[in-house]
Amino acid sequence: MSGPLSLPRLPRRPRSILLAVVLVAAVVAGALAVTASGQPGQRRPPTPAKSFTLSELGHPGGHVALAAFAGQPVVLNFFASWCAPCKRETPLLARFYATHHSRVAIIGIDANDQTTAALKFVRAEKVGYPVGVDPFPASTATSYGVLALPQTFFLNARHQIVRHIAGDVTARELSAWAASSASHPATAAGKASSTGDRS
Asked: The domain containing residue 28 runs over which residues?
């Protein structure tokens, strides 16, 4: 193995420029390493989900609270009736819930929407899971960092976020979640768990 790398002696000004370039390169490399560690598919420790209590859509006086699902894995879906991808995703979630609700809870959060339009939408799609109303300025959505719809968060039984999907969720992702929830009830994630967007 060769000895330590030594730079040729240069006049003071060029040496200072070279050192500055080396330092900038090191900083850039460090930033890239940090960015790479947060890329999809990389495992990171689960983070606690933000607690919330919202009025329940279609049930005057009713409320939807995350705390009411303590000890259960939860699929938390942010959507709105005006959101085009949500119109593809919501029927899928409704069908999934109809066949898996005994094992996995789903909470819909209707963000920044008109109540009449939202109610018409969820009834048309036969949504059986509870839907919380998050009116403008959508403080619950904001607390989860949701700036575009739809977005889905998979929570384990401890209500830690173990996966986050930006964009509409797929049947395959939901099926994988159901399987891992059954086999790993404490984590409800298995090998597929990942924070950040889907891989």
From this structure: 10-39
Say whether both 114 and 158 belong to one domain.
yes
- For residue 110, pLDDT over 80 is answered with yes
Count of domains for the chain:
2
pLDDT digits (tens, 9 = 90+) for 28-84: 333 333 333 334 444 568 899 999 999 999 999 999 999 999 999 999 999 999 999
What is d(CA 45, CA 104) in angstroms, rounded to the nearest whole number? Answer: 22
Name the token pair of 62: 């009713």
* Higher pLDDT among residues 7 and 122, named by residue: 122
Nearest partner of 144 among 74, 43, 39, 55, judged by Cα: 74
**Residues 155, 49 contacting (CB under 8 angstroms):** yes
CATH number at residue 172: 3.40.30.10
Question: What's the per-residue H, E or C state across 165-189?
Answer: EECCCCHHHHHHHHHHHHHCCCCCC
Quick check: pTM over 0.70? yes
Beta strand 131-134 with 53-56: parallel, antiparallel or unpaired?
antiparallel
Instruction: Give the bridge partners for 109, in sequence order.
Output: 78, 132
Distance CA 26, CA 199 (A): 28
